[in-house]
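[Q] Does anyone have a clean structure-token version of this?
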Amino acid sequence: MFRYQWAVQYIRAPMKILDLACGTGFGSALLARIEGVAVIGGDLDPPSLAAAAAEYRTESGPHFAAMDGTRLPLPDRSLDLILSYETVEHIEQYHDFVVELARILKKGGTLLLSTPNRLVASPDGVIRNPFHTQEFDMQELGRVLSGPFSEVAVMGQHYARFDQLPGMRGLIGKAAESFFYLRGIRKLPMSLQDGVIRFLIGHPQYPTASDYQVVSEPARTERCRTLMAVASGPTSD
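[A] Here you go.
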């Protein structure tokens, strides 16, 4: 949800937007509420697309369609904004994927892309997620994007929940959250976990969009679990 809210600053209606790997469509629906935008939600998974259409499709959009990211069924230079969140790490032909995104984007268009930071997600070099074919660090992602795009900025999605909780309260809350997530204690009733975290830090157990922020300083970005890139200026004709 945070990433879709972050994307709103790049929207200048009228616009045609592609939400690629839209899943069950909640983000596509959020963007489609903005007046003057047309949103396409694309995904490979038929059950997800069926759920998205059943829940969110209306006369004003979004429109949902089956799409392969390496062979997109869209004309050259047809989109103003593309969102592709947590997608590139799943595609073996990731170079083809990025070139396709550049192909369908207008010359003045923008790509917003997120992917796990290899330095945090797989610090020992062993990819733990069985669905990831590769992962990138900040520099690697920048190089992948800078071929098809002339302007690339790689930032980080920083978990800021504890930034405003200095001292022991923040330390205890962070330790409790980590304990629930990492030690298998997550199997306890959610109401119990949520009650403990709310008592300690005044927040729910699961993070909300307000618990995150985008950071651009390289040293901070390298410590973020998720990289967020903004690319523009497709270089191909």
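[Q] Thanks! Anything notable?
[A] The CA atoms of residues 99 and 148 lie 6 Å apart.
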